[in-house]
Amino acid sequence: MNALKNILVVIDSNDDVQHAMSRAVVLAKATGAKLTAFLSIYDFSYEMTTMLSIGERDAMRKAVIDDKRLWLVDLVEEKYGQEADINVDVIWHNRPFEAIIEMAIKNKFDLIVKGTHLHDTLKSIIFTPTDWHLLRKSPCPVLLVKELEWAEDGKILAAVHTGSDADHHKSLNQKILNESMGLANLINADVHIVNAYPGTPVNIAIEIPEFDPSEYNSVVKAHHHQAVAELAGVYSLDKERTHIAEGLPEDVIPAVCEEIGAELLVIGTIGRTGFSAAIIGNTAEHVLDQINCDVLAIKPDGYVSPLAEQ
Q1: N or C: which end of the chain has fewer CB within 10 A?
Q2: For position 48, what pLDDT does the model report?
Q3: Please, are residues 193 and 241 in contact by the beta-carbon 8 Å criterion?
């Protein structure tokens, strides 16, 4: 996070308070990064004016864009003009998440900051919210901001996965902790680590009589405690800042967030897309609506957004 140079802030024209912008200003002050306030707008009614020529419809869209740009410029100057140098960009696009990601790819932004709201679970499955698309497809880290402020001497919770020896999991764990430590230095916070591990598979215990569930559970638990201890040691984090528990990540992570009063959760997301994402989702998505703090979603090294491939 110390290397932040360009931050893209997604503006919500329906929200009186721009929490994402406030959070981005804090980061810009700490890093010297440039800010761009970005608004994607679309009104289907302007596409239905068939009695007008293409040129007239274009002129109407331009008028709407110019009006929103003036509104955004006034907002930025009135509330943040004394705090940061902020660029403004407004475009017409019928899919906000695509507009955001295309903007991030084109201008090589280091971070996307966006306000988020509680989603209705059913709608999240049928109509995937912009937040979920960003978690899956953004080419850079995404900071989803809720309403609480970052407290002085606050807590950052880094969610790691130590159940695999695969190189991409190990490198993602390191990336999550590197970002967490970098942010902690910027905002004067303490870093904690959380890791969830699975319980004994019930079907194995039933199908294999000689299987010893307690021994299996002890071995798994010891492995995760050792792996987390090694990670914590690399970053000089004491045992009191590590939290290892049996259970699903979407249960364990929110519980630890609440227990320690975390202001920010840093979590990896593999960017699953398609049908499996709609039905299963990603851990970050399951966690998002269960916590009352900000979420910083990190992609693994080498990740390429599917929109960049089009």
Answers
A1: C
A2: 61
A3: yes
What Rg do the C-alpha atoms of the chain give, in angstroms? Answer: 22
Q: Percent of the chain, pLDDT > 70? A: 84
Query: What are the tens digits of pLDDT across the range 160-186?
Result: 988 777 787 889 999 999 999 999 999
Domain with CATH 3.40.50.12370 in the chain: 1-115, 148-310
Cβ pair 157, 123 in contact under 8 A = no
CATH for 148-310 is 3.40.50.12370
Query: 266 by DSSP, 3-state: which?
Result: strand
Residue 267 has pLDDT above 90, yes or no: yes
pLDDT per position as a tens digit, 22-51: 999 999 998 999 999 999 998 776 666 666
Task: Name 4's Cβ contacts closer than 8 Å, sequence gap at least 6.
Answer: 27, 28, 31, 33, 110, 111
Sheet holding 294-298, edge to edge: 86-92, 34-41, 6-10, 111-115, 142-145, 294-298, 264-268, 155-159, 190-197, 242-246
Report the distance separating Cα 88 and Cα 246, nearest Å. 46
Residue given tokens 């761009």 in the structure block? 36
Give long-range contacts, CB 8 A cutoff, 24+ apart: 161-170: 161/195, 161/249, 161/268, 162/195, 162/197, 162/223, 162/224, 162/227, 162/228, 162/231, 163/197, 163/198, 163/224, 168/300, 168/301
Q: Please name every residue paired with 245 in a beta bridge, in sequence order, or none if there are none.
A: 196
Which of 173, 159, 171, 179 lies closest to 302, judged by CA? 171
Q: Which fold has domain 1-115?
A: Rossmann fold (3.40.50)
Amino acid at 261: G
